[in-house]
Specification:
Length: 173
């Protein structure tokens, strides 16, 4: 891989990831570019979700650093953010004019539902590739329940789930 490939891969991701990057990130990184396999992708994404900041930005930095060090991290992050920045500035300049329009509000609600569906679809696709382990599936279910049903703070969930997952996965090896 060349640095320009890293930039273009993350530029493509940033340009195409409307409403959420999960589905397209996996497709580009694992299927199209073959930079990581499913297990590496899931592990790295899990780590990036546990870190503060935007998950996909964290992911770009980690992948870029893996291949080209700190310079690669900067290249990947710049590639990821360039297209959305251009699009966001353009949309923001027009949004004030149309924000009160009922059709625009309806479209935003529809985009929210589509984004949720994309996130669920990606989670299912990733889960299929992970070896079946009832104990770790139980941990995943407990984490989901803590976040979705009990609405516990994410730092508290991570503080418990990460070491528990590490211990359970390590103990089973």
């Amino acid at each position: 891989m060349r640095r320009i490939d890293l930039f273009l891969g993350f530029f493509k991701l940033g340009a195409l990831a409307f409403g959420g990057t999960g589905p397209i990130t996996r497709a580009i990184i694992v299927e199209d570019r073959r930079w990581l396999d499913d297990a590496e992708f899931a592990g790295l994404l899990g780590l990036c979700q546990a870190l503060p900041g935007a998950n996909t930005c964290n992911f770009a930095v980690m992948v870029g650093d893996r291949f080209f060090g700190a310079g690669g991290a900067a290249i990947a992050l710049f590639g990821l953010l360039l297209a959305p920045l251009i699009i966001l500035v353009t949309v923001a300049s027009f949004f004030t004019t149309f924000a009160g329009n009922a059709d625009v509000r309806a479209a935003l609600f529809g985009a929210t539902a589509a984004g949720a569906g994309l996130a669920i679809g990606t989670a299912i696709k990733m889960a299929r590739k992970i070896p079946f382990d009832p104990v770790l599936i139980g941990l995943a279910a407990a984490t989901f329940i803590a976040a979705a049903l009990f609405r516990l703070p994410l730092p508290a969930i991570i503080a418990v789930a990460l070491p528990t997952g590490y211990f359970l996965a390590g103990a089973r090896r």
